[in-house]
Specification:
It is built from 20 helices and four strands. The chain is mostly helical. The strands form two sheets. Strands 1-2 form a two-stranded antiparallel ribbon. A two-stranded antiparallel sheet has the order 3-4. Strand 3 and strand 4 form a beta hairpin. Helix 1 packs antiparallel against helix 9 (about 175-190), helix 6 packs across helix 17 and helix 15 packs antiparallel against helix 16. The protein is globular.
Length: about 500
């Protein structure tokens, strides 16, 4: 396999400067996955859209973001992560301007699709640059920053959205991306190094199968709740799409095994035990991060009577603890076995969710809620860095982008599963505890009578046990991590080599 370019052109580049330049765009694309939820009522009123249409403003973005990740990760290996990231950022920024200028919901949905494609090009490159520019014994600190940005972005989105919508109008949740995108592009072009490119032949059949399979699977899961997990149109049902997606992805894997040329996804990546286990773990983390916020927000607004912005601020301790502890955890992740640091984090998140479920009653003092939420943020800081750095630690440099694409795809699929799973469990618990209530929990929040507060709070609290249970699967995965090579105890003066202590 041919390699082109030099590791860095010109003077040496500080990898930390490059990473800070990249996380500006990374933060922006993650915020845009959640910021629209707060603006939904304003968009409906201004554009004259119904609920079914405006839901696609978010769904279209998430689909366009998630489906191409396997391909866009590979593009970074072929053309260079800096170049692909820059093109993606330009597309994302221009699409953001387009979103703010739209006058119909149909135009907004199309603009969001383009925005999602730009985000899909950007996301894998951030992780690929970490893998290719940081030494193995420093990647934990870099991944802690990457993970802290991912965690904080999901919390900042609703808060920022509320401030912008209340102060300037819904268009500004998109317009604000334009100056940020311009600054991010200038910094990326100046600070991110030109890394070697690898001449890959694109597996066109693999691209087709992966794209179709991911679309059918993600669309089916993501929209299942909207269609009541039943028929969509004619003979097409939610479950037929999900099953078809699984079958097409199975065909994709079969083709990758049989392809004698250069497959889109080298299955040899999964021979590395830690890479496979980290992908299992990050799927459960994606599930939990996405799903935990829904019942907490509905409880805060429906039972406690908080406004959307006040409810989002309730999660502020999570962001504070996660951000403050991120650099500390990064150093620990570089020096200690990842099963210890990640295990502490996943166990702490599980305990925090169960604790929060126990205190989510109508009249609980706010401080009783803030304690488990604080633990949730602190424990989350121990999750991202060790899992991310362990996944990428042994990746061949020629496949860093492909590996990053796989990792981000599994995280995003976990997020889609979490969104669908928490909606289903909330509906089931509401049906059991409040049989007369509509299955649409969000629609019922505004007019929830005080007599139903206890049952509604109980339903939301019980729903939190789903992500807590799923996270135990991730805990088992990280406890099976092998000791990374750079942590092996070698004799004095001896070179460190080998697969490491299993």
């Amino acid at each position: 396999m041919a390699e082109r370019g030099r590791a860095v052109t010109g003077a040496p580049v500080n990898p930390w400067h490059a990473l800070w330049a990249l996380v500006i765009g990374f933060f922006m694309i993650l915020v845009d996955a959640t910021i629209v939820s707060v603006a939904t009522p304003a968009i409906m009123q201004d554009l004259g859209a119904d609920v079914a249409s405006v839901v696609w403003v978010t769904s279209a973005y998430l689909l366009a973001y998630a489906v191409p990740l396997l391909v866009t990760g590979r593009l970074g290996d072929r053309f260079g992560p800096k170049q692909v990231y820059a093109v993606g950022l330009v597309i994302f920024t221009l699409a953001s301007l387009w979103c703010g200028l739209t006058t119909t919901v149909a135009q907004l949905i199309v603009a969001r699709i383009v925005q999602g494609l730009g985000a899909s090009m950007m996301n894998p490159q951030t992780m690929s640059v970490i893998t290719r520019t940081f030494p193995a014994d420093q990647r934990g600190r870099a991944m802690s920053l990457w993970g802290a940005v991912a965690g904080i972005a999901t919390l900042v989105g609703p808060i920022l959205g509320g401030v912008l919508v209340d102060g300037l109008g819904w268009e500004w949740i998109f317009f604000v991306n334009v100056p940020v995108g311009v600054v991010g592009l200038v910094l990326a072009l100046r600070l991110v190094p030109d890394l070697p490119t690898h001449v890959h032949r694109f597996d066109l059949l693999g691209v087709l199968l992966s794209g179709v399979g991911m679309f059918l699977l993600v669309f089916g899961i993501q929209e299942g709740q909207a269609f009541g997990w039943g028929r969509i149109a004619g003979p097409i049902s939610v479950w037929s799409l999900i099953i078809a997606g699984i079958l097409v992805l199975a065909g994709f894997v079969f083709w990758q095994v049989r392809n004698r040329g250069e497959p889109l996804l080298s299955l040899a990546l999964f021979r590395d035990r830690n890479f496979s286990l980290a992908n299992i773990a990050i799927t459960t983390v994606g599930f939990t991060v996405t799903s935990q916020a829904f019942p907490i927000m509905l409880y805060a607004q429906g039972v406690r009577g908080l406004s959307p912005t006040e409810a989002a601020l309730l999660l502020a301790p999570m962001a504070v603890f996660s951000g403050v502890l991120a650099p500390v955890v990064g150093r620990l992740a570089d020096r200690h076995h990842p099963r210890h640091t990640a295990g502490v984090g996943l166990l702490g998140v599980t305990v925090a969710l169960v604790w929060l479920a126990a205190v989510m009653v109508p009249n609980a003092p706010i401080w009783q809620l803030l304690l488990p939420l604080g633990l949730l943020g602190a424990a989350s800081a121990f999750v991202w860095a060790p899992i991310g750095s362990t996944a990428t630690r042994n990746l061949p440099m020629a496949h860093a982008g492909a590996g990053s694409g796989v990792y981000n795809t599994t995280r995003q699929v976990g997020a889609v599963l979490g969104s669908a799973g928490i909606a289903a469990i909330m509906e089931a618990r509401l049906a059991a505890l409040l049989p007369g209530m509509s299955g649409d929990a969000e629609a019922a929040v505004g007019g929830l009578p005080p007599a139903q507060h206890g049952a509604f709070a109980a339903a939301m609290a019980q729903s939190l046990l789903l992500p807590a249970g799923v996270l135990l699967v991730g805990l088992v995965a990280v406890l099976c991590f092998a000791r990374p090579t750079h942590l092996r105890r070698a004799p004095a003066g001896a070179a460190v080599s080998g697969a490491g202590d299993r």
